[in-house]
């Protein structure tokens, strides 16, 4: 029932993806998601060097024989990482799926395609999705405004963005942002998606390599407990509502620029949140769907539950509603 263009193209059992998350997409989590039948993804730049990424890929292979991918996020930087070397590490390691986020994937596509790698590109607008399709990616992951991290500057929620993209695209598309359970999966598919990408939901699982205090905070939070930072900088990011995020918002409201918040938003501080469980050490990404999360399951239990409940929804409640509507 849940076989889709995405599962067929990317060779996975279920149309459920654990997207790349900085400091979180490590071997244990990616392998657990893939072993459960979804698509687990290692975050390439979480590893400090290309060689470390090779070793992380090898560790993942020791934990699962199912397909998994590697995320490569390309962002403007004063001192950019050696992207070509990370890309070569992915190719040399025999990875078959790559998720690219950030800049246009065209620079990397020839190398990845020549190596027989399927490319999934993450984007936040129909325009960028169509551009990714034009340059030759195999699928796109489109982020609605509800998502953690960078939702773009158009503020378009998934309920509108997903069908708008589905109407235009010819390649498989998965939906991201605001999805944490079977209802989100079924809704996304009804809107035209071929699967879903979940970050926050997989952040709050037993295998997620972050402090338990962060997971407990996600369970306790509601959909209202996020902040949008960098709005004035046209680089919007959705993060958890904490003391640091509120301070950043206030500085922006007062006319401050990036230099005024640079130390507050440093990646090392966010990493400290995940590693030490100090919830106010820095900013950390989380989506509005945290309001739908009420437990900390294993990835196997979570994926099995979502698939089971999605099939029950499709064959049961929704089918019954259609029959009832026709009878009327």
From TrEMBL:
Its EC number is 1.13.12.-. Pfam families: NMO. Keywords: Flavoprotein, FMN, Oxidoreductase. The keyword Flavoprotein applies. It comes from the Bacteria. GO terms for molecular function: oxidoreductase activity. CDD domains: NPD_like (cd04730). The keyword Kinase does not apply. Transmembrane segments: none annotated. It is an enzyme of class 1 (oxidoreductase). This is NAD(P)H-dependent flavin oxidoreductase. It comes from Nocardia halotolerans.
């Amino acid at each position: 029932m849940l076989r889709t263009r995405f599962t067929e193209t990317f060779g996975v059992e279920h149309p459920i993806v654990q997207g790349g998350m900085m400091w979180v997409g490590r071997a244990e989590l990616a392998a657990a998601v893939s072993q459960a039948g979804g698509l687990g993804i290692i975050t390439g730049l979480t590893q400090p060097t290309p060689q470390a990424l090779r070793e992380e890929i090898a560790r993942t292979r020791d934990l699962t024989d199912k397909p998994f991918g590697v995320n490569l996020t390309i962002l403007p930087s004063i001192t950019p990482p050696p992207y070509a070397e990370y890309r070569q590490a992915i190719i040399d390691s025999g990875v078959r799926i790559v998720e690219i986020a950030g800049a246009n994937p065209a620079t990397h596509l020839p190398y990845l395609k020549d190596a027989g790698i399927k490319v999934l590109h993450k984007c936040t607008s129909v325009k960028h999705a169509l551009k990714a399709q034009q340059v030759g990616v195999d699928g796109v992951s489109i982020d609605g405004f509800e998502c953690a991290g960078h939702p773009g500057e158009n503020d378009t929620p998934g309920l509108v963005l997903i069908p708008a993209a589905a109407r235009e695209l010819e390649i498989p598309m998965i939906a991201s942002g605001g999805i944490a359970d079977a209802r989100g999966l079924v809704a996304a598919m009804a809107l035209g998606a071929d699967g879903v990408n979940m970050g926050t939901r997989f952040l709050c699982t037993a295998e997620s390599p972050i402090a338990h205090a962060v997971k407990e905070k996600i369970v306790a939070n509601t959909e209202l407990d996020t902040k949008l930072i960098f709005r004035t900088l046209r680089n919007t990011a959705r993060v958890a509502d904490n003391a640091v995020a509120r301070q950043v918002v206030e500085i922006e409201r007062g006319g401050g620029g990036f230099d005024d918040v640079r130390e507050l938003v440093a990646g090392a501080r966010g990493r400290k949140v995940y590693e030490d469980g100090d919830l106010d050490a820095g900013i950390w990404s989380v989506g509005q769907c945290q309001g739908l999360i009420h437990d900390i399951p294993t990835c196997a239990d979570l994926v099995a539950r979502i698939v089971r409940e999605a099939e029950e929804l499709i064959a049961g409640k929704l089918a019954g509603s259609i029959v009832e509507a026709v009878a009327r």
